[in-house]
Amino acid sequence: MLSRRTFLAAAGASAAGLVTGARAGAAPVVAAVRLGPIGVQLFSLPKLLEKDLDGTLAMLSGLGYQEVELFGPYPFSVPAAQEQWRGMASMLGFSGSGYFGRTAAEFRKRLDAHRLTAPSMHVELETLRDRTEQVGEAAHVLGHQYAGLAAIPEDRRKTLDDYKRMADEINAIGAKAKPLGFKVLYHNHGYGFTPLEGQIPTRVVFDRLDPSLVALEMDIFWTVAGGADPVELLDAYPRLYRLMHVKDMSKISHFARGGVMQDMMSLSSAMTPAGSGVLDLPRVLAHAKNVGVEHFYVEQDLAPNPQEQLGASIRYLRGLTLQA
After folding, report:
1. Which of 51, 142, 219, 319 is deepest in the core (most CB within 10 A)?
2. pTM
């Protein structure tokens, strides 16, 4: 269970020294802040986007969302990614992704029409590595500041050396991306927190990443599912975390197999709108703001009732006053 004390104590202590004219011995004064613009990961409602792109974007804007994060594959994705997606489509019950049948420029026009921006996108490893320039072109058209990995493929994280090589490869891609105007993001899906060869693989990766080239995107739900404390990770890597996926958990649940696909599937039913579960979201979000997280995306994978569930999440988050 997440501890509620560590951050609140630290935040109160640090804020006391920032208050102008604070009297010695006076009670700490903690600044109250709002979360700011709230976004949504489009994997929350792909079926609606495929059926009615304009109507769905209008609904998101009407709920108060200001940012979106895209998921692939895209028209420029490598053939292997396109083929893998076709194989998954029948199981998922939809085939749309990326720009949902539009070009990047057409999709940007639809976002602009509904007062939405797209600061980031998820893109497959092979596409990010082998077609970095095309990713950069898309980022320029759509206005992405970040583009990167939703997860390391399972076959690329079997050993500790695999994790090390993957971190080095992410840095190398980041070096190619920087002159193209975007930073590589890495969204850790909660795997890698179980000791492997005497070390925590996720820590090994994060310790090797270059903050000038790579940004981390925390998913609160999957981080807890992996057995880690989101606040402790934010403390440990404040120069890396710049994006966050926000979702709640109906009851504290952990991976049984270390974060393989079966774990993801088995725990998906525990996802619930922000504020309706057991996670201490105010604590995590306040700490995220404190270390410099810039973009907060609600995500509820394939939400059964997107308007109701995404509406509940943003109403909760817009009502929060965080102690940062």
Report:
1. 219
2. 0.89
